[in-house]
Amino acid sequence: MEKITYKLQTLSSLIVSPRNTMAWYETLGAYSEEDVRVSLDEKRLPNTPNIIYPFYQYGEYDKYDPKHAEYYLPGSSIKGALCSMQKEHGEFIMVDDIKIENEYIELRNLFKAQGIQESTPKWDYYFDGLGIEMIKEDEGFQGTIFADTKERMYEVLKNASILTQEKIKQMILYLNSLKTVEEDKNREFLNGVDSVIAALKNFQRKENVIIMGGYKGFLHSLKIDGDINEKEIASALYIDPITSCPHGFVKIEIY
């Protein structure tokens, strides 16, 4: 197999955590309010959480200790994002983990569109007792992929990027369908919708963009055939309030 070097750049914050196997609970003494005080920020972590979901880490930890944790981005997550709709290529590709230095990880609350099915939807922090470690936006990392040929890897990336663009289009359609609420009552919500649409359109102008990780919403996870509207599809909208971007957008460059 051929060894291929690539660069992964986060275009928005990236959440990859083993939520089903690990979480730290303040009530069980895994951390205290003082441990997260340094992370408190009006837009990133406005509230002290009582549960923390960690980013992937090598080793086992019995407490929240971001200064000494060894973080990594699993190769399986990268491969899954590249090959989720291209199963035939999966057996020809292996992806190494990427070690992530502590400085690139940030603890944040989730921010979400709430009450979409109601007359007065709003943007607000979702379950503010939950803190999630994530990779910050606009950070770059180098990784290694093993494939039978570099040409196959270019094909996989091209197809994954095309699929991502299709998902972006369906999300923009969905966001536009939300703009049927009364403008005078929902100006703040509609401004937020427009900001997300603008961010997504910016991703459409970039090449080799894929989406990975969690909290990206139903319409960024699957390609849907047929009409898209808010009455038929209730897609969660988790947004980074700093950049107005959905989580999980990355750019891949092969060398």
Outline the structure in words:
25% of the residues lie in helices and 26% in strands. It is of the alpha+beta class and 255 residues long. The strands form five sheets. It has a five-stranded antiparallel β-sheet with strand order 6-12-1-16-13, covered by helices on one side. Strands 2-3-11-8 form a four-stranded mixed β-sheet, with no helix packed on it. It has a three-stranded antiparallel β-sheet with strand order 4-5-7. Strand 14 (239-240) and strand 15 form a beta hairpin. Helix 4 runs antiparallel to helix 5. The chain is flat and about 55 Å long. The two termini are 16 Å apart.
Summarize this structure briefly.
With 255 residues, the chain is an alpha+beta fold. The protein has helices at residues 33-36, 75-83, 87-90, 150-177, 187-204, and strands at 2-10, 24-25, 51-53, 57-58, 70-73, 93-95, 98-100, 105-108, 110-114, 122-126, 130-135, 140-147, 209-211, 239-240, 245-246, 249-254. The chain is built from 5 helices and 16 strands.
